[in-house]
Amino acid sequence: MLTDTRVEVATLLALGLEERLAEVWTAMSADPGVGVPELSETLGISETQVRAHLDELADRALVRASQQVPGLLLPITAEAAMAQLLRRQEEALTEQQRRIEAHRERIARAVTAGLGAHDRDRQVEQVSGADAVHARFEQLAYGTTSTIDSLMPVVGLPEAMLRDAWPLDAEILRRGVAVRSLYLEAVRNDAPLAAYARRMQAAGAQVRTSPTLPQRLFISDRRIAVVPMTPGAQGEGVAIVSAPGIIASLLELFETAWRSAAPLDVGNAVEAATGLSDTERTLLTILADGVTDESAAKRLGVSLRTVRRIMADLMRRLEAGSRFEAGIKAAKRGWL
């Protein structure tokens, strides 16, 4: 059992447990056998609230009925609690990833269908050519009045491009537009882009990172979006979308990615139960699907050398002589 209650609460919070439930569980863990009246006094909440929280903990299998004292609930061990919460968190992330992929496929079909139709209202407009795309972005940005949400699955942008982009971004933030930008986790290894992201954050933008992102996306005022004509391809033009149904799907795609992302300055967090970072777990999952090292590097926004270095370290930790063996051992440990 962990002895530092503050550490226990922080660990449980990191694994997705609500603060009040974490406080109840740690109070029970510190004094097994404690009853509802004592928990009420210790936590400064009513007995009715304590019972409601105990019901929620029971629903999550974090407490169990005593085999010796009828009606008494006992906390499961700290190790079991962390494993249970981690499993729920992994299930939630898997479901989020499934929803992201479903949204991306539905959006791609809708955009393709829109471009194939003669839409009088021009709800889907195709723009080709770097200069035309840049001009359209400027037009949309200056016309934005309330929000901009963007996914940025890119690294290695030229510093000149970042210098040219700053005056427009600064103007948007100065006008009070609420900006949320989601970058690849690999941005931390890209000094110019990391500096730009922090500059945006200092100017008032919300910035988060994720190991992978589904596609490039820019949404203005929750009503107009810019998506690549061919996700993952550069220089093939963009589609300007205003069809409400497609916008709703794109917003849900963004929100799903945003909820599972980490603040810019959190760093590459390591799971307490497995010792894996987000990048390591994502790489294992990608390679388990049969993706090549080159494709994995592109999706993570890192170099091929970095992918191979991370994989070599994982094989060493798993004591595996081959990637096939590493996959089997990773699955047995619950890393996949």
UniProtKB/TrEMBL annotation:
The keyword Nucleotide-binding does not apply. InterPro entries: Sig_transdc_resp-reg_C-effctor, TrmB-like, Tscrpt_reg_LuxR_C, WH-like_DNA-bd_sf, WH_DNA-bd_sf. Gene3D superfamilies: Winged helix-like DNA-binding domain superfamily/Winged helix DNA-binding domain. It holds the Pfam family GerE. PROSITE patterns: HTH_LUXR_2 (PS50043). The keyword Coiled coil applies. Residues 269-334 form the HTH luxR-type domain. Keywords: Coiled coil. Residues 86-113 form a coiled coil. This is Helix-turn-helix domain-containing protein. It comes from Catenulispora subtropica.
